[in-house]
Write a structure and sequence with these properties.
Distance between the termini: 13 Å
Oligomer: single chain
Radius of gyration: 20 Å
Shape: globular
Strand content: under 5%
Mean pLDDT: 80
């Protein structure tokens, strides 16, 4: 099992390290441009190819329900955790002189009202709150999840991992709404602008095109070329992470990133495993669901951060912590659940 994990994680360390090294030699604007290209081209390409391979039927119809459960749990627990973190900071601030305390109290009308109640301290920005939620919600099912499944899961159940990944378009659409609402600026904008961004997400349309084109046979050279491009997208996303890691001089957000990281690696997979057990799933199917629910924070969060100007340091901190966390917890999942 150790050799399998080593083969699965080797590309991660190679491309991330390369990004850290290259940061010193390439223009600062390159990472932003790379993130935009991945958003509009790379991720849609991956979604298209997974759509062509997806087959729904039987027990696999339960997988989208599990994905919805994991998404709602992640968002709800992130909101509660953020509220608890804010309360903790607020009570600690009571020990400071009153003239040093300045709280921002505002309620937002419309779709973001529930989120705005948590934004109390003046130094906390909308983008950091949005990034906090995304760090707990979005997992790297497409790259790391599928790589781990290919190595650790019986080929008979590999479709479970594929369906979980493509069902993640539900989570991704919600994540785009959150990123659009909390990103771009610190001021409010109408909720329908965020809804427009969700409806125009290129990857979801690419997935449906792939799903509808399953019976269309592409030339072998085109099919193999598109399949190879998936790994180019994978390497580019890891390179983007390395570039962002190289740009950080300190880690002021690492302490805050620990909260969504623990939710992502420990709490959410445990809840998904409990749900799978209640549904009568055991063995490989349950392991697939738990593993896909507990993969590290998705690299796509960095792409959204580039597009919508979110808190990149918080997201990078969560990605780093969850990568380390999965290395520790994955042998436990395989031994216990299988």
């Amino acid at each position: 099992m150790f050799d399998s994990l080593l083969r699965a994680y080797a590309p991660l360390f190679i491309w991330i390290s390369l990004g850290i090294i290259l940061f010193r030699f390439i223009p600062a604007s390159f990472s932003t441009r790379l993130g935009i290209v991945l958003y509009w081209v790379g991720v849609p390409l991956q979604s298209f190819m997974f759509g062509r391979r997806t087959e729904l039927g039987g027990e696999t119809l339960l997988i989208p329900l599990v994905v919805v459960e994991a998404s709602l749990l992640s968002m709800g627990l992130a909101l509660l955790s953020w509220w608890g973190w804010q309360k903790f900071n607020y009570y600690n601030a009571q020990e400071l002189p009153k003239q040093q305390i300045s709280l921002e109290r505002s309620l937002d009308a419309g779709a973001g009202a529930i989120f705005q109640t948590a934004l109390q301290e003046q130094h906390v920005t909308r983008s950091r709150f949005g990034s906090f939620i995304l760090a707990a919600m979005l997992g790297n099912t497409g790259f790391i999840g599928m790589t781990l499944a290919d190595v650790l899961i019986d080929p008979l159940y590999l479709d479970w991992a594929i369906i979980y990944n493509v069902s993640g378009i539900i989570t991704y659409s919600l994540a785009v709404f959150i990123a659009s609402y909390f990103g771009q600026s610190k001021t409010q904008h109408p909720w329908w602008n965020s809804l427009r961004d969700v409806l125009t997400v290129p990857s979801q349309w690419a997935f449906f095109v792939g799903l509808l084109s399953q019976n269309v046979e592409l030339p072998v050279i085109v099919e193999s070329g598109l399949q190879a491009m998936i790994w180019v997208v994978f390497a580019s996303a890891l390179l983007l992470l390395g570039l962002r890691l190289g740009s950080i001089k300190c880690w002021p957000s690492l302490e805050l990133a620990l909260i969504p990281a623990m939710l992502k690696v420990l709490v959410i997979p445990a809840m998904v495993g409990l749900t799978a057990t209640c549904l009568g799933l055991t063995g490989e199917p349950r392991l697939v669901l738990v593993m896909m629910a507990g993969v590290p924070t998705g690299l796509v969060t960095l792409i959204l951060a580039e597009v919508y100007d979110l808190d990149r340091e918080l997201l990078i901190g969560s990605i780093t912590l969850t990568l380390v966390g999965v290395l520790v917890i994955l042998p436990v999942w395989v031994t216990w659940l299988n």
